[in-house]
Write a sequence for this structure.
């Protein structure tokens, strides 16, 4: 048992995966000596060498495209994209090559690759450093997309993503990297990777979140409880495939749903969750599904990012509107 | 700002312009368009009669694959076909220089290289007919699936070569173990970021990869002048590895240069850019109309450099083939053509539910649900599955 941050959990998970399988490689800008700009790969190159922890030229398409070749040769590359807004130069390789290789080869060329992306805002960064591109990847068949929200999940989910024979876009809430600590029991049996989870039980309304907004949702539930409102909070964890089971079960009990994410609301994950809930439990709903998210603007300058990001108050306001129906 | 014009070096357009048709002074050539054997101080080999007859046979049969496929497209049997007419020597020379353990990443026009790797030409047709995305198993012949996005495969080749390095299969001195990778692309692809990034990665890691650019002068309607102000092989120097321009219509020279580049890679000396200087005598694909953008005079000029004709002249002049050999080869080509015609028409359409197959290594529950739902829907129609 150890008490760790998300950054430490991811680092320990990567280390474990590299120890367990010599085919696992880590690639990206500054992942070697520096240990990555967020220090997630700290110490790995020292222990596993430059052939397995590869400092890459500054070229995102090159990083992902060479990882495709390494995967075809039988390796399991884990590539780090330094910031969410820098993934777009690699977008073609991810959606046209990584995502489709298994399909076009009729299963002969698997792509066991993990693309790690620190995502989301709230760290006071300049532009292109705070984006939430998850819907762009979740919309692409052939990719799997997950988002961790806490240190323990970070430790297990990164190992499970690496072990997956499918390519996984792995989203890490960067403002949580060094924020909160949690107890990790390395001997525990983790939950399967592609599952969502109820993280707080409640009866009046369901709140669905993932990544950085799980913490927001939990804070909202605490605050609501002081007013006598009982919120159920679900950490989606997997965005593609979506594990709707716990969500549907919850909404059938509470009759109300608010989905919360940092990404733009228009055509975001919340729209997909809302559509599926409407299809599956229309007669259980007491109110329309509501969404709280980033506005449909580019990510703003950091001095006003708190206005862009969904916070406890905006989430509680949506809960109130849902309860008022 | 009174610096003289000369201080900036020669005008590159002027340097590039006059060499357009003959490839310039650095062109490596071992067989002239007239079928005369010449020699080169760095790239020269002794070829056996069997080897030369083999090249000739490969080129004749590859041209037959191409003409049959073009005809099949005209008859509506293929949706589209990417023609290689005129590029047979570039592809056979490059393809025959490979060893079994080498790996090839093609674009979508490498029918001659596929032939050298033992891929059934019938398997090439499925992609263009629309029954699959490439029927061959890339692991069987170390020949990857065709890549449609221009230049994307140059990075895959480089990464694969980095994998070969990590497997310790470079520079061991064991000819059956040391391996290299070839990335094929065209002159147009040389403008793509991915190709340039591949150059950088390959140079940085000294990866055992040969970049084989078939400069066929045209990227659909865009001429090479629109892609580069310098001869393409000279770009390699800027990335820190050698570049060679070879006569791509000369199978002997293409073989010799590619073999040297592959050997260099296998020994651990890193990447090479080979620019095979050739000409696309046909259209870009069967949907293209090259008469709209290029001069017939150019085409006539390049017909005189035909890669098959020049080798035949050489072989006949040196008594290496006779009329019987050529006649027998024609019979073999006819049989291949017949097999392709009949085989193409017999290629079965995939089943409707095949569209759900192999999206993932581990199928998701939501996709299984979609597949089962569509299956149930199809069952409501008579004979729909």
């Amino acid at each position: 048992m150890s008490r760790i941050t998300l950054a430490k959990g991811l680092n320990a998970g990567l280390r474990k995966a590299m120890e367990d399988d010599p085919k696992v490689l880590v690639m990206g800008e500054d992942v070697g000596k520096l240990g990555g700009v967020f220090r997630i790969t700290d110490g790995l190159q020292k222990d596993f060498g430059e052939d397995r922890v590869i400092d890459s030229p500054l070229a995102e398409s090159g990083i992902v495209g060479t990882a495709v070749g390494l995967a075809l040769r039988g390796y399991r590359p884990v590539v780090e994209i330094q910031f969410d807004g820098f993934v777009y130069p690699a977008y073609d390789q991810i959606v046209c090559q990584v995502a489709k290789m298994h399909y076009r080869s009729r299963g002969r060329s698997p792509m066991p690759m993990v693309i790690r992306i620190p995502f989301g805002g709230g760290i006071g960064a300049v532009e292109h450093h705070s984006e939430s591109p998850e819907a762009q990847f979740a919309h692409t068949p052939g990719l799997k997309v997950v988002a961790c929200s806490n240190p323990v999940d970070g430790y297990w989910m990164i190992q499970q993503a690496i072990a997956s024979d499918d390519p996984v876009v792995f989203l890490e809430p960067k403002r949580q990297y060094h924020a909160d600590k949690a107890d990790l029991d390395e001997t525990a049996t983790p939950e399967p990777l592609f599952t969502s989870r109820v993280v707080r039980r409640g009866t009046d309304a369901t709140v669905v979140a993932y990544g950085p907004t799980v913490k927001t949702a939990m804070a909202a539930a605490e605050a609501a409880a002081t007013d006598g409102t009982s919120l159920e909070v679900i950490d989606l964890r997997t965005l593609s495939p979506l594990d709707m089971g716990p969500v549907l079960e919850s909404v059938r009990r509470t009759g109300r749903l608010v989905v919360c994410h940092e990404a733009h609301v228009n055509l975001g994950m919340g729209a997909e969750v809302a559509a599926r809930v409407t299809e599956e439990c229309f007669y259980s709903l007491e109110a329309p599904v509501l969404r709280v998210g980033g506005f449909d603007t580019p990510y703003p300058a950091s001095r006003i990012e708190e206005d862009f990001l969904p916070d406890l108050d905006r989430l509680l306001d949506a809960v109130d509107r849902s309860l008022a129906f | 700002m009174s610096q003289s014009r000369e201080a900036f070096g020669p005008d590159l357009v002027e340097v590039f312009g006059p060499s357009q048709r003959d490839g310039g002074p650095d062109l490596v050539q071992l067989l002239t368009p007239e079928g005369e054997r010449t020699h080169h101080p760095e790239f020269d080999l002794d070829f056996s009669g069997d080897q030369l007859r083999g090249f000739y046979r490969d080129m004749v049969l590859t041209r037959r694959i191409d003409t049959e496929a073009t005809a099949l497209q005209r008859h509506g049997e293929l949706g589209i076909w990417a023609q290689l007419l005129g590029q047979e020597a570039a592809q056979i020379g490059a393809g025959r220089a490979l060893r079994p353990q080498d790996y090839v990443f093609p674009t979508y026009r490498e029918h001659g290289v596929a032939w050298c790797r033992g891929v059934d030409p019938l398997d090439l047709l499925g992609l263009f007919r629309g029954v699959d995305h490439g029927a061959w198993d890339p692991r069987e012949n170390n020949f990857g699936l065709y890549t449609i996005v221009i230049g994307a495969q140059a990075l895959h080749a480089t990464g694969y070569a980095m994998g070969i390095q990590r497997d310790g299969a470079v520079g061991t001195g064991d000819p059956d173990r040391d391996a290299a990778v070839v990335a094929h692309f065209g002159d147009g692809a040389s403008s793509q970021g991915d190709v340039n990034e591949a150059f950088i990665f390959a140079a940085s890691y000294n990866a055992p990869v040969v970049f084989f650019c078939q400069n066929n002068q045209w990227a659909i309607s865009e001429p090479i002048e629109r892609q580069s102000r310098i001869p393409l092989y000279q770009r390699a120097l800027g990335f820190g590895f050698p570049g060679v321009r070879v006569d791509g219509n000369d199978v002997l020279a293409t073989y010799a240069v590619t073999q040297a580049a592959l050997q260099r890679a296998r020994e651990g000396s890193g990447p090479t850019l080979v620019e095979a200087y050739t000409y696309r005598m046909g259209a870009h694909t069967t949907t293209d109309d090259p008469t709209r953008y290029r001069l017939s005079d150019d085409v006539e000029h390049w017909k005189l450099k035909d890669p098959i004709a020049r080798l035949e002249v050489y072989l006949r002049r040196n008594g290496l083939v006779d009329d019987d050999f050529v006649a027998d080869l024609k019979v073999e080509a006819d049989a291949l053509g017949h097999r392709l015609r009949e085989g193409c028409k017999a290629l079965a359409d995939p089943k409707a539910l095949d569209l759900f197959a192999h999206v993932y290594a581990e199928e998701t529950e939501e996709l299984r649900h979609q597949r089962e739902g569509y299956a149930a829907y199809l069952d409501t129609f008579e004979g729909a599955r």
Q: What stands out?
A: The first strand of chain A starts at residue 2 and ends at 4.
